[in-house]
Amino acid sequence: MALLKFSSKTDIRDEVNPEMEAFLKGYSIEVMPRTAEKIDDFRALLPKGTRVYIAHIEGTPIEDMVATAKRLRAEGYDAMPHFPARIIKDEATLADWIARYQGEAGVDQALVLAGGLAKPYGDFHCSMQLLETGLFDKAGFKRLHTAGHPEPNTDIDPDGGRKNVNEALSWKQAFAERTDAQMALATQFCFDSKPVIEWANDLMAQGVDIPVHIGIAGPAKLQTMIKFAIACGVGPSLKVLQKRAKDVTKLLMPFEPTGIVSELAAHKAANPEFNIEQVHFFPLGGIKTNATWAMDHGGNSALPAAQQN
Asked: Do the Cβ atoms of 88 and 122 come closer than 8 Å?
């Protein structure tokens, strides 16, 4: 199969917004084992060296997760599997997963998060407990990402506030300061740039300087987008979709992230110290659709390893 080339034609590149191109450089994207199976060759879609998160959904065998990581590594990508605390029974299970990823797939990075289950399988209920085991450090994992929440999350703060989230962020900041691991906050997806910018600025004001990788929902039908947004607990920015949905002619049309990405890119260009460093895509409308949108808007290259945050 012929592979796509990531050097755009001149007439296409002339139309690319340079701020968006800079902002999309080094973006990451998320897959699941079952969606990865549908891709013949990731090299036809993603720039070499792209970080690919592997979502661990409840019920997915660890063997499938490790196999997906191994394949991605073989095709030239940085595989970052999820470690959801609430589906990990105990420390022995965590140690086994880490050993499998490292030994069979050469993985040295992880997204450590609580996971969406209301009731934990076993000993762990939050990402901090996984990190406190010290097992990632002992295994030599170089990069550890944790979850960030630009909008209030009632699963964490039932009253709609930020008390518990902020306490967790303070702990993560302290952990980042005492460990050699490269840290980042990978966030839930949002649809409105204003609350994202306010949240990112508030982090800095709180003394949290962990780089932010902002979650962006890739192009998808509006109905699909609304379904996922409600299921994932997206906050006030859901109003962007609800407003669009009032026009029934747009319900079946794709909703693209051009608006929020261009606004965040412009803010980053005007404020280089802005702590949102990279974009992380949730390909709700499919990996191919998302990758094509990214290419069309300048996301054609991965960051060199030395520049990754």
From this structure: yes
